[in-house]
């Protein structure tokens, strides 16, 4: 072997060490006589978390050694049971000398009678060790410098922590190890290849060093403490799929033996590393220290296993992806397993089984926040489910796995043919790919499964080759690969068997406009798994998380046009937001405000008490796409609404795109609904097909319930015959006050002075604004009309239409006073009044804006101020008793109020309580 010739003397030492471990292993150790029978695995779930009632068990061992001199240690008390607590400190906990000090302090302060502390390598060290292998086998000389960096890091840490003999002993071992590694890496460099056992041997050194340093430090506090090289104790069998299975019986024997030699009350054990039954060093694979702790916990029948890490516990979702994730107080073993299997890397999935069988609880705690109680993983208490109300408690958490591909094997020839699934998965096994999820349509026409993306090519090749004949004969139509997928798993005990959970889940995904590629729900009742496109994954996670964990309706809002109406809306939101949240569970967050020149963006929600100042201080150059992106894409809230408070047709032209992207749109802007008919129809068709809402109540009559009333009538099957109304607050004011001796021009001038008109009153008097409202109502009633189809009797005489300015128009308006006065007099003589109205005649399929006369007892004659009035004549509400809506129909407060109503309607559509 090329490698053997380059073995250094210390390497020989290493090999003989391994051999001596082997000879240790040949020592015959009798199994425990008491503990195993007393602490038999729990086969059925006992629904009480009884971990506090554990009893100390005494272990009687008999030992014989191979040198023939049998040394009886009968009655030697090898304690197992509640007096042991196991701790595990992750890489981040021992990332620096200061952190290692901190860990030592926690160990010293722990008042358990006996403790076993499993420790990971210092943060990043395992990665550095894997990198050494990678470099060496790529024949990259820089592995030498990289190994020096590893040495340097540990030397520095040791100098910080240790002194005197402790330091010298550690450094001498460290140097020995580094020399051995150098030799081994050199061999790998020459061979250009590292076997799995060489790799495992190299990468496990981080744990050896951190455990030794920590043990020396704890010993300094005069504690009875030894360090344990778990390669001497934990024995595992490789399973062939980059996993290992512990041999508990053999490991327990070795543990007993180890105790005989090192009877200590505090043990600092290496995480991650173990040996094969042949004493070849191996590992429990990446992130395996949690597993080490669980194995140790079960071997000792410990009271509990505490996993110390850098977060407050197991969160309802990965806190790096969902900032609103919450720490879960308790999880059942099964829930924790599902969470970790599906990607919650706070816990290694294999941690659960060893402790579950003895009912040993696992506690996840944050070393950087000792006041946080952490998450307890144990058997669920008997009452947990019975006391639950609603669906939410059944769902505990969400986890995701990225970088997957779906493989879809499809064909009619699969139905009812025994052995198809076995042939498919046999082929997958041959290439050692890991199947993460399987889903089969009940028609059996397709079997679909997810594998890691990096394995999919080999899988597809194997399948195509295995099914060559079936594909050629057409019995199988295809082996398709869908790359760039992610799994989103929803986890919770009893969840899958509780009606409504999946509906709520899929509803949340649909509302966030996320397409589900595949679904799997095991009978285990603990999880529902969906496959989504990778780019949708985080959004999907946030959508479902917020559906079950955030207030029922959290809506991200973007306000376009913070002018008079937009500004008033923002102020109303400011005043009402906390009431909505507390009383109605509606959480509205304004993530962006944009004007035509400046915009203000936020990731968490703009402080509405200061939005004006913030816009001045922090406003950036307006960019509508960036604005939309920020409101819609850059945060955890799955529902987005853009509120267009402008009257700009350019902004309205974006609605289609926004709705298509799953963004709800609310607006008082009339331009979209009164613009070109084809665009309007396209918009409405899209709105009807999708779960995305488009509300525009304030386009007609400001806050008055006109559109919603009309929609209500239509949806309940009434037939609209005519809609007639005074839709303009300005014109309402003018005609309500055009009485007695007053002239028309005088009233118009007064209306302008009071701010009821547009800067140029012709914009009101021309009737165009009313015509737009007529079009909106006509289209809502099903008429396909364009703006020019509406007959508009303008109140601006032909000769005044070209006046240069509003002022000039007002000056010239008295020329027409007489004409208007005559019209009023004629009406008066007939007991009538003049009103400027919009009319939709559904029967004749026409619309008009016109000056009409009404009897003085008609509802339209009773108006005051600038009120609007709208009358619906329908089959149910006949001509004599039309349905009338009346009230202030203009002004910033009521218009903003109308928009606000739409926002709340949206919230209730999204699931807010009523
Ligand atoms: P350690 O080095 O202590 O073993 P890990 O990095 O393996 O730590 O695991 C802790 C990390 O797991 C956390 O920092 C967190 O970012 C991540 N994580 C992913 N999902 C979850 C979750 N659901 N709850 C808590 N942490 C999670
Ligand atoms: N140090 C090992 C790793 O990084 C094991 C662990 O920390 O859990 O994979
Ligand atoms: Mg970990």
Automatic annotation (TrEMBL):
<comment type="pathway">
    <text>Amino-acid biosynthesis; L-lysine biosynthesis via DAP pathway; (S)-tetrahydrodipicolinate from L-aspartate: step 1/4.</text>
</comment>
<keyword id="KW-0677">Repeat</keyword>
<dbReference type="GO" id="GO:0009090">
    <property type="term" value="P:homoserine biosynthetic process"/>
</dbReference>
<dbReference type="Pfam" id="PF00696">
    <property type="entry name" value="AA_kinase"/>
</dbReference>
<dbReference type="GO" id="GO:0009089">
    <property type="term" value="P:lysine biosynthetic process via diaminopimelate"/>
</dbReference>
<keyword id="KW-0520">NAD</keyword>
<dbReference type="InterPro" id="IPR036393">
    <property type="entry name" value="AceGlu_kinase-like_sf"/>
</dbReference>
<keyword id="KW-0809">Transit peptide</keyword>
<protein>
    <submittedName>
        <fullName>Homoserine dehydrogenase</fullName>
    </submittedName>
</protein>
<keyword id="KW-0486">Methionine biosynthesis</keyword>
<keyword id="KW-0521">NADP</keyword>
<dbReference type="InterPro" id="IPR002912">
    <property type="entry name" value="ACT_dom"/>
</dbReference>
<comment type="function">
    <text>Bifunctional aspartate kinase and homoserine dehydrogenase that catalyzes the first and the third steps toward the synthesis of lysine, methionine and threonine from aspartate.</text>
</comment>
<comment type="pathway">
    <text>Amino-acid biosynthesis; L-threonine biosynthesis; L-threonine from L-aspartate: step 3/5.</text>
</comment>
<comment type="similarity">
    <text>In the C-terminal section; belongs to the homoserine dehydrogenase family.</text>
</comment>
<keyword id="KW-0150">Chloroplast</keyword>
<dbReference type="InterPro" id="IPR001342">
    <property type="entry name" value="HDH_cat"/>
</dbReference>
<dbReference type="InterPro" id="IPR019811">
    <property type="entry name" value="HDH_CS"/>
</dbReference>
<dbReference type="InterPro" id="IPR054352">
    <property type="entry name" value="ACT_Aspartokinase"/>
</dbReference>
<keyword id="KW-0560">Oxidoreductase</keyword>
<keyword id="KW-0479">Metal-binding</keyword>
<keyword id="KW-0028">Amino-acid biosynthesis</keyword>
<keyword id="KW-0067">ATP-binding</keyword>
<dbReference type="GO" id="GO:0009088">
    <property type="term" value="P:threonine biosynthetic process"/>
</dbReference>
<feature type="domain" description="ACT">
    <location>
        <begin position="490"/>
        <end position="567"/>
    </location>
</feature>
<dbReference type="GO" id="GO:0050661">
    <property type="term" value="F:NADP binding"/>
</dbReference>
<dbReference type="GO" id="GO:0004072">
    <property type="term" value="F:aspartate kinase activity"/>
</dbReference>
<feature type="domain" description="ACT">
    <location>
        <begin position="409"/>
        <end position="484"/>
    </location>
</feature>
<keyword id="KW-0418">Kinase</keyword>
<dbReference type="InterPro" id="IPR041743">
    <property type="entry name" value="AK-HSDH_N"/>
</dbReference>
<dbReference type="InterPro" id="IPR001341">
    <property type="entry name" value="Asp_kinase"/>
</dbReference>
<dbReference type="GO" id="GO:0005524">
    <property type="term" value="F:ATP binding"/>
</dbReference>
<keyword id="KW-0808">Transferase</keyword>
<dbReference type="GO" id="GO:0046872">
    <property type="term" value="F:metal ion binding"/>
</dbReference>
<keyword id="KW-0457">Lysine biosynthesis</keyword>
<keyword id="KW-0791">Threonine biosynthesis</keyword>
<dbReference type="InterPro" id="IPR036291">
    <property type="entry name" value="NAD(P)-bd_dom_sf"/>
</dbReference>
<dbReference type="GO" id="GO:0009086">
    <property type="term" value="P:methionine biosynthetic process"/>
</dbReference>
<keyword id="KW-0547">Nucleotide-binding</keyword>
<dbReference type="InterPro" id="IPR011147">
    <property type="entry name" value="Bifunc_Aspkin/hSer_DH"/>
</dbReference>
<dbReference type="GO" id="GO:0009507">
    <property type="term" value="C:chloroplast"/>
</dbReference>
<dbReference type="InterPro" id="IPR001048">
    <property type="entry name" value="Asp/Glu/Uridylate_kinase"/>
</dbReference>
């Amino acid at each position: 072997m090329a490698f053997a010739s380059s073995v250094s003397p210390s390497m020989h030492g290493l090999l003989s060490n391994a051999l001596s471990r082997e000879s240790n292993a040949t020592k015959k150790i009798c199994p425990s006589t008491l503990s195993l029978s007393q602490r038999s695995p729990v086969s059925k779930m006992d629904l009480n978390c009884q971990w506090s009632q554990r009893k100390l068990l005494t272990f009687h061992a008999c030992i014989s050694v191979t040198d023939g001199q049998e040394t009886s240690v009968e009655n030697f008390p090898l304690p197992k049971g509640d007096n042991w607590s196991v701790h595990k400190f992750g890489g981040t906990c021992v990332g620096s000398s200061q952190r290692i000090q901190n860990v030592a302090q926690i160990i010293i302060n722990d008042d358990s009678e006996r403790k076993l502390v499993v420790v990971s390598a210092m943060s990043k060290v395992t990665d550095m060790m894997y990198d050494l292998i990678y470099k060496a086998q790529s024949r990259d000389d820089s592995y030498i410098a990289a190994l020096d960096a590893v040495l340097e890091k540990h030397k520095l840490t040791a100098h910080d922590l240790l002194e005197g003999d402790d330091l010298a002993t550690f450094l001498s071992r460290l140097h020995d190890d580094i020399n051995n590694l150098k030799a081994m890496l050199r061999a790998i460099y020459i061979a250009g290849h590292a076997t799995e056992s060489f790799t495992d041997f190299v990468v496990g050194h981080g744990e050896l060093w951190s455990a030794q340093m920590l043990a020396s430090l704890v010993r300094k506090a005069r504690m009875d403490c030894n360090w344990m090289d778990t390669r001497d104790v934990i024995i595992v069998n490789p399973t062939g799929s980059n996993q290992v299975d512990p041999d508990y019986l053999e490991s327990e024997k070795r543990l007993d033996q180890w105790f005989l030699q090192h009877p200590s009350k505090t043990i600092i054990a290496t995480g991650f590393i173990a040996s094969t039954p042949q004493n070849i060093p191996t590992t429990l694979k990446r992130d395996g220290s949690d597993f080490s702790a669980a194995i140790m916990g079960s071997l000792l029948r410990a009271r509990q296993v505490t996993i110390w890490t850098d977060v407050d516990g197991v969160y309802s979702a990965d806190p790096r992806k969902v900032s609103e994730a919450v720490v879960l107080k308790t999880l059942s073993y099964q829930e924790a397993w599902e969470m970790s299997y599906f990607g919650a890397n706070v816990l290694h999935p294999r941690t659960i089984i060893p402790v579950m069988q003895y009912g040993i609880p696992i506690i996840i705690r944050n070393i950087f926040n000792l006041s946080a109680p952490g998450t307890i993983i144990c058997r669920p208490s008997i009452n947990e489910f019975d006391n639950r109300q609603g669906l939410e408690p059944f769902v505990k958490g969400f986890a995701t796995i990225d970088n997957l591909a779906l493989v879809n094997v499809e064909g009619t020839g699969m139905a009812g043919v025994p052995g198809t699934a076995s042939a498919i998965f046999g082929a997958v096994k041959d290439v050692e790919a890991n199947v993460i999820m399987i889903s089969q349509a009940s028609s059996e026409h397709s079997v679909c499964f997810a594998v890691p993306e990096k394995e999919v090519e080999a899988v597809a090749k194997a399948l195509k080759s295995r099914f060559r004949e079936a594909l050629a004969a057409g019995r199988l139509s295809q082996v398709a690969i869908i790359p760039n997928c992610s799994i989103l798993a929803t986890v919770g005990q009893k969840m899958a068997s509780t009606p409504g959970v999946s509906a709520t889940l899929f509803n949340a995904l649909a509302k966030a406009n996320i397409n589900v590629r595949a679904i799997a729900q095991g009978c285990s009742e603990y999880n529902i798994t969906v496959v989504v496109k990778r780019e949708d994954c985080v959004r999907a996670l946030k959508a479902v998380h917020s559906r079950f964990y955030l207030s029922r309706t959290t809506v991200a809002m973007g306000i376009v046009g913070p002018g008079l109406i937009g500004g008033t809306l923002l102020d109303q939101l400011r005043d009402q937001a906390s009431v909505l949240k507390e009383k109605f569970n509606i959480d509205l967050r304004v993530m962006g405000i944009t004007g035509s020149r400046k915009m203000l963006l936020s990731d968490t929600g703009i402080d509405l008490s200061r939005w004006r100042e913030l816009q001045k201080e922090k406003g950036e150059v307006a960019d509508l796409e960036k604005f939309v992106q920020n409101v819609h894409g850059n945060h955890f809230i799955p529902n987005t609404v853009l509120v267009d408070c402008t009257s700009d047709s350019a902004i309205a032209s974006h609605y289609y795109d926004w709705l298509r992207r799953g963004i709800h749109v609310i607006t008082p802007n009339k331009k979209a609904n009164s613009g070109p008919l084809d665009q309007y129809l396209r918009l409405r068709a899209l709105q009807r097909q999708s779960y995305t809402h488009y509300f525009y109540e304030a386009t007609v009559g400001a806050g008055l319930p006109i559109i919603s009333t009309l929609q209500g009538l239509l949806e309940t099957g009434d037939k609209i015959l005519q809609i007639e109304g005074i839709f303009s607050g300005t014109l309402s004011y003018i005609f309500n006050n055009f009485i007695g001796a007053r002239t028309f021009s005088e009233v118009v001038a007064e209306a302008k002075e009071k701010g009821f008109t547009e800067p140029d009153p012709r914009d009101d008097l021309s009737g165009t604004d009313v015509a737009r409202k007529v079009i909106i109502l006509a289209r809502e009633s099903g008429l396909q009309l364009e703006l020019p189809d509406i007959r508009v009797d303008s109140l601006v005489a032909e000769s005044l239409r070209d006046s240069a300015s509003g002022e000039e128009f007002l000056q010239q308006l008295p020329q027409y006073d007489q004409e208007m006065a005559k019209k009023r007099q004629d009406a008066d003589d007939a007991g009538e009044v003049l009103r400027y109205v919009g009319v939709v005649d559904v029967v004749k399929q026409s619309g008009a804006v016109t000056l009409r006369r009404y009897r003085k007892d008609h509802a339209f004659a009773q108006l005051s101020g600038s009120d609007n009035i709208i009358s619906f004549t329908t089959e149910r509400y006949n001509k004599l008793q039309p349905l009338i809506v009346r009230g202030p129909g203009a002004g910033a407060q009521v218009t903003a109020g109308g928009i606000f109503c739409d926002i709340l309607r949206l919230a209730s559509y999204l699931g807010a309580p009523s």
